Amino acid sequence: MNHPGPPQFMAVGETVQVAPRDPDPEAEYTWRVKSAPVSSQLSLGDDPVVDFTPDAAGTFVLELTGPLGVDELTVRVFPGELAPGGRGAGSSGQSGVSGMSGVSGVSGVSGVSGMSGMSGVSGSGSGALGPKREGTGGGRPRIRLSGRVEGDTVVVEADPQPNPNSTTPREALDVEFLVDDRWPVDRSKVDVDGWTLTLPVDAFEEKTRVHAVSIDSEYSVADAIEIRVKGTTVDFGEGVRTDGGHAPRAGARQIRSDGGVAAESGTKQVETGRLYEPPEWSKDVTLYEIYVRGFASDDDEAANTFEAIEKRLDYLQDLGVDCLWLTPVLENDHAPHGYNIVDFYDIAEDLGDMEAYQEFVDTAHDHGMKVLFDLVLNHSARQHPFFQDAYKNPDSEYYDWYEWQENGEPGTYFDWEYIANFDYHNLEVRRYLLDAVQQWFEVVDGFRCDMAWAVPFTFWQELRDRVKSQDPDFLLLDETIPYIPDFHEGMFDMHFDTTLYFTLRQVGNGHQSADAILDAIEQRTQVGFPDHASFMLYQENHDETRYIVECGDEAAFASAGALFTLPGVPMLYGGQELGQRGRRDALAWDHAREEIQEHYRHLIEMRSETPALDFRGGIDRIDYEADSDRVTAFRRESKGQSVVVVLNFGDAPGYVEIDADVDGTNLVSGERVVDEGTVEVESVAVLEER
User: Is the pLDDT of residue 327 over 80?
Assistant: First the structure.
């Protein structure tokens, strides 16, 4: 199957890059516009990869002809004024295309949902093609789909929510349902009534998918449900090549069931499942980033770097770490960070070999730890042999693999001089990188995806379908700076919380009050992330100055408390718990600051034993009085437990009066910290409500 994937939601003036999936670079692919709105004058070129920019609102059906037949791609296009963040006709925003040299990833430079569409099947949102409605606004709404089976009928219900800043009542939100193009469905049997879509189980064969957006003054990130016959085998049409012999992992399924929702209709047992939930195992872990050339470089006895790191796994296990992210381990140029890759299929010689890496992963698994592979797909090193052959040589077979500027230099970002951007319009590039993805997928538990904003959305969608069709518990973590809500739509499970990172720095430096931390958490919803999105919380990484260096000891202790009490998944950068001051230096194991280590041990243990700090736990502001704006307080609640968290970024103990009836024992330190309703907090206090 070369089907280009799920149809797209977008707005006039936005752009999405469409391409055949699982491509054969030797084959011929052609595109044409099969149907379009009456006012459209759009035509497509002869290239196999097309940057599609609609010129009219309505429904487009694009037709892809390839060696495996003809496939259709439905693109649902809203008026430009419905584009998120005010993008659309006349704007410079682009969606779903990798940027050329000098174009950086800016929050909101996205907006294509990447979900499916079906011409003629829409709900109450069909009115969204009309003029912008009065009295609405305030940002992107959100949506969540749920599915169930009632007798012979599948029911998909949408739960739209207005943006917190919108004046639109929830009941006034529009919803558009779109059914996936990739599997045969009797469309005449699909019925939409407001926020509910129904279809009989005999309307499809083995599976289908339903996608939807909510519409206010902007359209939302889409959500999706899969409907399938129980026991349906993995569909290699999702993007895994059958000629390579890649088999699904044992027991792999494509969806996670909605709590066992299933029904039997005659001989057809049907179930539904949500597609964009993060893996269960990823919700409660403590992540730990290892800078591979500095973490254990003091070990002169280990046979290789992986063995040296392996010898530290007992320490990490004792600390409470259960997921490891290693900076790139592939063959690279001179830069020790490893992000300038010269071989996407081989382990760097200075670190070890494939056998040593596999042994490390296996040992980590024995310690109860998952391993994330740092996946770099936007560029290669300029020392990569393909680039070396292509540079200033238009006759090279690799010349079209790269983006080129008018001056003959490669496309890149931020004037980085050692890398060159791949050109995703080239099917050979896509094939080369997809095969690399498959190789490393089979070794690890997830990908941390570097510079995710610089790779076309549709490529990430293909990558996700490829790995999730083999292992739905494989984790996909994106680095986008700033973060982009659309990347939770058929692309990634977890996102760098770059807004919280920046806010923690601002608070630590005294440039903002501590309450700004709560503003940062609320911003997730305000910019349009769905409620089921997952976030990685961090205060430093290999690219940043150490937090303790920039903000001082007291703020560092409080910031650590924030990481382990706010909604999300905390991440430590190797050495953070030691009081390490150098960003990429060899870790000073012999000079570790015991009080910092113990602080992190207590935080990790406390989080694991406090149900209110659960991934799904709610967060609310509370009334409090403090003698400094370096202090903030909030409530977390889940699983029948409620706690009040008080953070103090100041240089001296803070005294806080809170409007809550709490037990006086700090769950972090075990000490009594409440006296007649006043909390004394040095850095972080977690207090259980009575």
Answer: yes
